[in-house]
Amino acid sequence: MSALRIGVLSFAHVHAVGYLASLAAMPDVEVRGSDPDGTSTGRSVDELRGRALADALGVGYADTYEELLAWRPDAVVITSENARHRELVELAAGAGAHILCEKPLATSWEDGLAMRDAAASAGVLLMVAFPVRFASVFQRLRAEHAAGALGRLVSVRGANNGMLPTARDWFTDPALAGGGALVDHIVHIADLLDGLMGSEPLTVTAVANRVLHAGRAASETAGLVTITYANGVIAAIDCSWSRPDTSPVWGGLTLSLAGTSGTVEIDFFGQAARGIVAGTGRPLEARYGPDFDDALLATFVDAVRTGTQPQPDVHVGLRTLSIVLAAQESARTGRTVHVLREEAAPAP
Amino acid sequence: MSPPRIRIGLVGAGGIARAHLPNLLRLGEVVVHSTAGAPALVAAFGGGEVVDSLEDLLERVDVVDVAVPTFAHAEIVRAALAAGKPVISEKPLALTDEDAADLAARAEAARLPLYPAHVVRYFPEYVRLKEAVDAGTLGDLAVLRFSRSGAFPMHTPWFADHALSGGIVMDQMIHDLDMARWIAGEVVRVSAVTARVPDDRDPVEAAHVLLTHASGAISHVAGLWGPQHLPFTTEYSVTGTGGTLAHSSAAEQNYRSELAAAVAADGFLPAVDPAEDPYFAELHEFVDAIQGGPTPRVSAADGVAAVALANAARRSLETGQPVELPSFSRVGA
Question: What are the structural domains, with CATH classification, of chain B?
Fold first, then answer.
């Protein structure tokens, strides 16, 4: 088996660091990155950009996207700023590379549809990077739900709270991020519900504010969203950047599901050894648990090798994006908004 | 010789009366009237005298505690106020905004206290939250979440009838709607979604309510009447510019057991520490105020506002759109 060539386009998203390292550790995978717009903001691995990050991680590097694509990678991972996903997806699809695109799929409906069509017409696979659905606890939830252990699902509460992203300050630039907390943190839980239920979202209501980090953020830093689904389920998501900067850990993601036969609560990042630092009185939270990114990347690499479309695909990406766009409109207008639906996919 | 003990008339002998009677017996002489169940209630707690009519009760007591089903609150409260009695009323004060406002107006006109029993304000974990917010520890509030889950109330049929109980929003979630308003202030917009499986044997009802406060803070209130085996649990998570405070009743257990023969838990009412019983704290504060003590932490106006929030959420369920609260309902702003 020849080594698979995988390129990483842009290191703008913090997840690029983990993806580069995980891919580099895979057998029979050769990794090269390119980050022509990146400028390091410090010396820690989370602050390095461009060739400096590639060198620090021991992976190959190309100075331009064109040079990277001329290497003829089998697949690429796109970890640019959200608003630049489309141009890089179109570039990669044009080069015939399969694509794993960081979440959210895009920052506008038009961009999302264009990405779907670009991948379809180039005949390449397009997967969206939602690592949390690869958690083994989510597989357990799926199995219990499928076995009917929850009965008929009725209501879901989800919270995906983190710190205000600071190492990569484009997260708080609405032009590049496509918004603030709503675009950043709705989609993971929306993806989990999509993967669990496979039901169309119908309406979205959202409230948001910029009380937290008012001086540093140009967009909303707190958001609460309710969603109704075609199967009758109601869901609520807290997508706020409400974890204080001084927290010992970045944040987390919790899900509480209620059905006619019982409830399930999942704390996806919650397992930790806990203590206190004597010198400062600060809490010590030593988290443990499997790395969901490894399972996500393994699924993508396997799909590239077999040519089989993996999940979550671009349609999941579009459904989760439709919830974000409706939430943004609802927060802006104070109205409940019907989500956009994908028209029938074009014939191949 | 000690002064004669205050005479309290408990009207109603259903589920919530079981949380009231033992605490009322610590506070005064209790007379009980109910259309059903009063002798059994009195026998269960070894105190209280049963009378056959509301008129009898009103003639014999100094204060009336209304613990009848929701749909009868307004009628009994009106009768008690008309008889010149201070009134404690279970929540919701009434089913409609008009009735709730009318009760508050009658009490004010008669210069009689009317205290709606929003007991969550007396649960110690919520008192800690209020203290932290009032002390400024959490700074300017940004985002709040409240959740309340338990078994669908099946012990009596009126809960399942929205015309009689107001459904989960009016009966159960009104606790956290009141809490959100107590903690983060007046509310200017309300939206709600609901899901209901009206199964005869195992019904489930749930709702999510979003609130926008006048301050700009936002709140999510979640309610679940779940399957019959579900224990009663509550959660909150409140974040402001100064920090965050969260509580989970399931996580904060100070007694865990793994017994071969488990003792059945009640999924209808929360478990309380008998040494810090919030129902006692509440009734004690009310009875004390009626006897000249300090003003309670909850007023008739708060009860009217809580009903208005619940009804705004119910209107949102009907229209499918958020509801703006008119300024007249922002009581106590």
Answer: 7-119 (3.40.50.720), 123-271+300-329 (3.30.360.10)
